[in-house]
Specification:
By secondary structure, the protein is an alpha+beta fold. About 30% of the residues lie in helices and about 30% in strands. Helix 3 packs across helix 4. It is elongated, with a radius of gyration of 19 Å.
Amino acid sequence: MLLLPPSDYAKAMKALEAVTINHLFIRTVLEQKVDGTVYGDDLLCPRAFYVAHPYGMALLYGQDDGNEAFHQSLRAYFLNVNGVRTSAEWVQVFPHAWTALLEPLCGTKILRNTRVNFRFSPEHYRQYRANVSLDGYKIVRTDAALYGQMKGSVIPHYFWRNQEHFLREGVGYTVVCDDKPASTAYSAFIHEPEFEIGIETLAEYRGRGLAQLACTALIDYCMERDLTPVWSCRRENIGSYKLACKLGFEPTLELPFYQLAV
């Protein structure tokens, strides 16, 4: 794996055009909206790429030309043989043929989960929305004060450069309880017309349906602006999966999702 300079990210962007699974997080890195890491199998004419978002999500994609040196460098990286990685990563691959290489190469030392891609159905959302009221709750646009109070592992802080970047280019809606940002739904990535949703609820407020309300406010925002909401999650995350289905998202694809330990 050879580290590509930002001046060569266009090569990785061109190859990304063939990727049909959800890859907004990769576009965010390649367009340098956040600082990620981009590797290739060659510096001059790369055909295979490994791109990691700072949140810890990554994608291996492109053409496998049987480059044994690249294969072994992938194995070393996945198993963290040289301690290059300081945190865990979650990896998707495209096309699926990469799984035939990785699983025998790395064996049981990488954990396989399942990633689900959804398609948003405006019709199903409208049916859902007709029976849901946001009255009686304090649901507000996420501002600087709320941003600063957020805690959790899936908050805007991990998807935007800083508070100013999020407030300038992103958007979120927060359900406020006890003067706290109890649940916030927000834009993790925006590449118009696609708008990927992130959601975090404080532990003490979970189980009250607040995530559903925050997401409803955010999807309303998208619908008013002809933006297409995007949702992806681990199949093992039952809460996220069920919430997506309730909000009008329909599962369309399941694919391997590899957890790389440190």
